[in-house]
Amino acid sequence: MGEAKRGALARENNRAGLDTYAGKIHVEWDRQAAVTPLGQLPFFIEFLKVSGLFDSFVDDCPLEYSSPNAPAKRDILGTLMLSILAGHKRYAHISAIRCDGVNPELLGMKKIISEDAARRALLNIEEKDGIQWLETQFARCTMPVLSVVAGPSWILDTDTTVKCLYGKQEGAVVGYNPKKRGRPSHCYHSYFMANTRLALKVEVKPGNETASNHNTAGLWQLLESIPKGNWPAFIRGDVAFGVEGVLSGAEARRIHYLTKLRLTKNVKRLIERLFEIDDWGDAGEGYKGTESSLKLSGWSRSRRVIVLRRLITGDILLKQKTAKDQLDMAFIETEGRIGKYEYAVLVTSLPDDILSIAQHYRDRADSENCFDELKNQWGWGGYTTKDLKRCRFVSRMVALIYNWWSLFVRLANPNKHHEAITSRPLLLHAVAKKTSHGGQTFLTITNQHAKAAKVESALRNLSRFLGHVKVTAEQLNLSERVRFIALYAFRKLIGPLRIKPAWILPKLCHL
If DSSP codes are grouped into helix, strand and coil, which group holds residue 500? Predict the structure, then answer.
């Protein structure tokens, strides 16, 4: 009886009495309950298991430990994946998920490792083997998609983005950085599959290697790794790629290209020569366009160029910083008969009309959205270490898990790409509690989202679809299973379904 009283007293002391506007409440902590803030993650775990992507990711990892006390590969990679999915940008943020009592077990993990163990694990992987392993994982989740969306539906976007650094990391060099000039950085040479917004490859280089000549080797390597029948309709890039090395390389491989030209002296002469002609056709979005041919001094041949111009309406405000770093502003008020234009010059090998080519280049803005999402909503802006090797590993891991999540979200809503800032609250974040009784395990989810009812319906139907895939595609290999899933995830993009029988594909609830 005395022990019972002491236990009741201990429980009473564990409570905190709070005075609120609703009156006094008693708060207590339950350190033994198996709960998680990522309560809807089990649906994504089912997707990874049915597709086989996570098992392949773990089994092929070249990390080997000889000590019996070392953490398992599944624990290391599972911890990194959970951290990246949760939106973390630092290794130190791993501590925030170490008390997750639900998802690690569902992933087949024994525990969530510490941030130091995660750093050491990546350091123990040889760089060449690690990059080869991650490139293989990229191919396993993207090549089946390319076979589904092959043809004019997909375009290879290539571009470079800058990651600012604030320490003395390897490769932290001052280079092209329009936002924070003089700040050391790494540059990410990236390749995306337009429309699907899937990352095909990423390379991390020192900050002074932003030019396209540091990009072309990886571009041709990626292109040659894709079967010829699945090649893109054309390669698209910004002004950095309108150089001889890229254009002649594409011509040698007989693949079309579309890129922009810098307004150099010879390009401006072309604009002046074409200004007075009357053959300016509609190019969409208020632009007028005309075409010509141009051979710049560094080019080996003459190429087709499209000149676009748009009339600027209203008055103009010019600003300039003086030598004393003061802002000098000038208002220019012009009469209606004076024309003010903005120009863009595109170089292409495409045979399409001017309106189509102009729209193709405007659509390139979607790749900029990929950079924004990966840097600000995923982990490309963080996970920095002193050595460049681990930065290269993590950049590929982030892009790989971003691809997995994008495929999963497309299954729930094929109409558009949901960015992480929207899709995580919808399909990931919810409070879940695990209980076991009668030899069965139950997970009770409490979703606080305003669209909780639609989310529940979508996830139920998505789980039903994955169940059909598991039964129907039991004998298929990993590539065939991913292709099977991609056919349904991108059904709005590719048109009529090419899977039979159609009854295995239940209609999902669109969010």
Answer: coil
